[in-house]
Write a sequence for this structure.
């Protein structure tokens, strides 16, 4: 029986989403995009989920758009209208805008929209064999799933142009040196390390994490005065949270706080 794509499970507050089309190198067809979007909506609304980890089954994280599906749509004369771009954009916006912390555990190659999925996450942990490739200009195409927005902010304008224009294949070490990923670990330790990192986040004040994510996301379009005002408003909400009360009690009682994310 064919396994559904993607796979998902929740364990100890951590939601694991695994792209599961290994024979297609986890390429993103429209059904997979829609399934991912539905999972993210469900996990954002689920109080039991504190952190989300995205990874891939097999030797590739994600090969990007499913070009076989694209070819079929082109043969029908529907390439521009069959909905891949709109669905992919909805997914990227949702992943980027989640309040809960997100981690991409990158196993193998991340190409095109597959790389863009990792860029929408808060943290990127790469296995030693991970590879990153924009893939767009090699197909005489331009970025279409957020790379032109994320890359200059993560690695700077010139490095972004090098990755996009020259369509270079960056190994994990180069990605780390450029700031494209935060950590590189041995392949056989990737899932364990990502799980341990996710557990640290899940034990934290995730309500405050959500406000912090929004402040960072929205701060680039504000003046300092506007950002300070936004920080004050968010700080008042955080200060009224159960987690803030627990933090004060823990200090008074000289123990570690037990945060609930509310």
């Amino acid at each position: 029986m064919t396994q559904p794509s993607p796979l998902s499970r929740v364990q100890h507050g951590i939601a694991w989403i695994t792209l599961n089309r290994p024979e297609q190198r986890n390429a993103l067809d429209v059904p997979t995009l829609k399934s991912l979007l539905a999972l993210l909506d469900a996990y954002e609304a689920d109080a039991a989920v504190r952190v989300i980890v995205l990874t891939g089954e097999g030797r590739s994280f994600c090969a990007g758009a499913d070009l076989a599906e694209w070819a079929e749509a082109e043969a029908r004369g529907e390439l521009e209208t069959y909905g891949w771009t709109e669905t992919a954009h909805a997914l990227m916006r949702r992943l980027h805008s989640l309040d809960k912390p997100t981690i991409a555990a990158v196993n193998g190659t991340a190409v095109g929209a597959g790389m863009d999925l990792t860029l929408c996450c808060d943290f990127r942990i790469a296995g030693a064999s991970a590879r990153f490739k924009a893939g767009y200009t090699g197909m005489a195409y331009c970025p279409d799933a957020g790379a032109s927005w994320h890359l200059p902010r993560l690695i700077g304008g010139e490095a972004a142009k090098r990755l996009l224009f020259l369509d270079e294949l960056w190994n994990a070490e180069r990605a780390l040196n450029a700031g494209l990923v935060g950590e590189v670990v041995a392949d056989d330790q990737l899932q364990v390390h990502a799980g341990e990192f996710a557990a640290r986040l899940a034990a934290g004040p995730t309500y405050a994490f959500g406000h912090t994510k929004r402040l960072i996301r929205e701060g680039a379009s504000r003046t300092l005065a506007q950002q300070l005002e936004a920080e004050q408003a968010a700080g008042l909400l955080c200060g009224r949270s159960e987690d803030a009360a627990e933090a004060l009690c823990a200090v008074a009682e000289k123990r570690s706080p037990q945060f609930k994310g509310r």
Summary: The longest strand covers residues 14-19. The two ends are 41 Å apart (CA to CA). The mean pLDDT is 93.
